[in-house]
Amino acid sequence: MRKIISFMHISLDGFVAGPSGEMDWIKVDEEIFDHVGKRISESDTALYGRVTYEMMESYWPTAGDEPDASKHDIEHSKWYNNAYKIVLSKTMKDTGLTKTKIISDNLSNEINEIKQNEDKDILLFGSPTATHSLIQLNLIDGYWLFVNPIILGQGIPLFIDIKDKIKLKLLTTHQFTCGVTALDYTVDRQ
Fold this sequence. Notes:
Blueprint: E1 4-11, E2 15-17, H1 30-40, E3 45-49, H2 50-57, H3 60-63, H4 71-82, E4 84-88, E5 100-103, H5 107-117, E6 122-125, H6 128-136, E7 142-148, E8 156-157, E9 168-175, E10 181-187
Parallel strand pairs: 1-6, 1-7, 3-4, 3-6, 4-5
Antiparallel strand pairs: 2-8, 7-10, 9-10
């Protein structure tokens, strides 16, 4: 059965974006891109909220074609174009989208059905609102968190309105030279 893994940059105090959605505090470099690229290449499905999907769709389809495209842009653009995309949205319509499924209602049933189809993980990129919805429905199976060495003090939190404790088991850690630490957790359902 497939797992949904939430892939998120996070501040030390638990925020995924500043108060107005700003993400200029997130540290990324080639070392992080290489590490992330290996894991992403093992998946074939991305899950987004509408806002993140629209942001990704405006950049990644052609990012690798640019004359000054980085290695990361070329590789991720290729992956993005081949990946199946799931978008959680109550306003988008599923008209003419290639390799894309829009889920607007029956979230739990739709996601559980998709999880049955194959073995590769589904990566939930960013998308705090979508993440909050999936947490409430207990549909996230793991968290791949990139803890940035910053305290924001305020912003959009990763975890809000948690009804029941979520027990996690740490699978791996990875320290990057830029100060970011990757923490890979699985949800302990026992």
